[in-house]
Amino acid sequence: MSEPAAEWPTVGLTLRVDGHEYPVPQVWIGDSLLAVLRERLDFDEPRDGCGAGECGACLVTVDDTPAAACLVPAVAAVERDVRTPRDPGFDAARAAVAAAGAGPCGFCAPGLAVAITSLLRRNPDPGPAAVREALSGVICRCSESGHWIEAVALAKEAEGGAAAGSGASPDPDDADLVDPARRPEAAAP
């Protein structure tokens, strides 16, 4: 005869998300921040991608540090400042992603906005190689890095960017990635 299933331990907690306090009366002790945001608080972003912290779809910031929400235990986010892609602090990057066509289907766009904003806070004038490295944790199957580089440039410009003339020049080999007019698809057939 089998033994009865043990009760899974639950806790009540309050999360500070996008500047607001959200009480969550019953959370399984092993729930991820992503699960609580989406299933208990009905947030549509961050997205639920791989569930293993490898795709970047669930990027949020926890105390201004990018984090895969699927890997952060919800209980570890208590008394921390959690910012989702819907936070107004990511608006410039969201607009830049859309304007550059950097997330055509929209699935990776919220994670890209978080990654781009975090990058520009750490490095206000990144070159193409720094952009590729910083955004390498976001998987997108329907865009290319050139669109991402353009999105970073647009977000930088929207947020005031570096002072004129103080930025490093992009790698000449990547000029077609930075300048949309120089992309192969912009050429006349």
TrEMBL record:
PROSITE patterns for this protein: 2FE2S_FER_1, 2FE2S_FER_2
2Fe-2S ferredoxin-type domain boundaries: 11-88
Record key words, sorted: 2Fe-2S, Iron, Iron-sulfur, Metal-binding, Oxidoreductase
Gene3D superfamilies: 3.10.20.30, [2Fe-2S]-binding domain
Origin superkingdom: Bacteria
InterPro entries: 2Fe-2S-bd, 2Fe-2S-bd_dom_sf, 2Fe-2S_ferredoxin-like_sf, 2Fe-2S_ferredoxin-type, 2Fe2S_fd_BS, Beta-grasp_dom_sf, Diverse_Oxidoreductases
Pfam families: Fer2_2 (PF01799)
Listed Basic and acidic residues bias regions: 179-189
Region feature Disordered, mapped onto this chain: 160-189
Record-linked PANTHER family: OXIDOREDUCTASE WITH IRON-SULFUR SUBUNIT (PTHR44379), XANTHINE DEHYDROGENASE IRON-SULFUR-BINDING SUBUNIT XDHC-RELATED (PTHR44379:SF8)
UniProt protein name: 2Fe-2S ferredoxin-type domain-containing protein
